[in-house]
Amino acid sequence: xxxxxxxxxxxxxxxxxxxxxxxxxxxxxxxxxxxxxxxxxxxxxxxxxxxxxxxxxxxxxxxxxxxxxxxxxxxxxxxxxxxxxxxxxxxxxxxxxxxxxxxxxxxxxxxxxxxxxxxxxxxxxxxxxxxxxxxxxxxxxxxxxxxxxxxxxxxxxxxxxxxxxxxxxxxxxxxxxxxxxxxxxxxxxxxxxxxxxxxxxxxxxxxxxxxxxxxxxxxxxxxxxxxxxxxxxxxxxxxxxxxxxxxxxxxxxxxxxxxxxxxxxxxxxxxxxxxxxxxxxxxxxxxxxxxxxxxxxxxxxxxxxxxxxxxxxxxxxxxxxxxxxxxxxxxxxxxxxxxxxxxxxxxxxxxxxxxxxxxxxxxxxxxxxxxxxxxxxxxxxxxxxxxxxxxxxxxxxx
Length: 398
Description:
Largest sheet: 7 strands, antiparallel
Oligomer: single chain
Low-confidence stretches: 1-13, 70-76
Radius of gyration: 26 Å
Distance between the termini: 65 Å
Structural class: alpha+beta
Number of helices: 13
Mean pLDDT: 83
């Protein structure tokens, strides 16, 4: 192979025909045994099927693409500005440490006096910076797909998207526990298991959903920088005085027609709960085993009071790729609110790290990519794992 220029270009010489390598390989002597990678093996028939049907048949290699002579694309101005303001372009201060990508710039002060980020760059360029980044791991694994997604979802310089218009809603009902925000935030933990017995009241359930609605000057929704794009699809198991089944909660009621057209035509779409709450029953049914299956066959999906998938309007990303990040930020906001609401209701919640999105789409009857389930969550009566230690956080704080 030969390399030339400042960039690397490769030229292959005397590459053998792979078919001609088979004869000596057939008569070769092989030694050793494969190591078993895990004590437990899970069969994934779908992966085996994909492996079989995507094998390349014997035949000529496809023609390689002819590279165009193009200049390197410039990085979008807005994300570069954020990187500069967050001091992430100080390459000498990172050396072998992992690169970092700033996601947000917070202005703490008078909203009417918010500065233009571009005007902050000049004094930042002449500033003196100190310190070096800590290396987080001795081993670094490259994930090229993540780097690619990071590049193509940068927000270009331009006007900010319209913030969601807050709904005029009554205040949510008071939670079961009268605790300060500081106490709720400090005691908040992710459940590792549920007891399969605990239930919550319908009033508590409705109050949790009300807290997911965008209200004027109410955190965290006053930090949402785009329109409402994520709506929970709920599998209700143990909510008193509420029929178990599949429900859809529309955080933006204007999406009702879109979601009806995207899902199964046989769904009921029966309005339930308080009048101002856009909650709809789609199917009355015991979905505990379905929820467990969608949660990668984890009992925590069935043993909860309810499990949900965060259904995102993914079509918006096809037109504005930078909204991809916003969708996950919005899912994160929903999850954090539900964590706190669970603590206030005397139960516990957890995000589901492994879930089968296509199974959720099949349940709802969704085809295509206009709507996608991006994250899953569940809530119930927690069972503590006594092998884990829990220490009080921030003991130095009042």
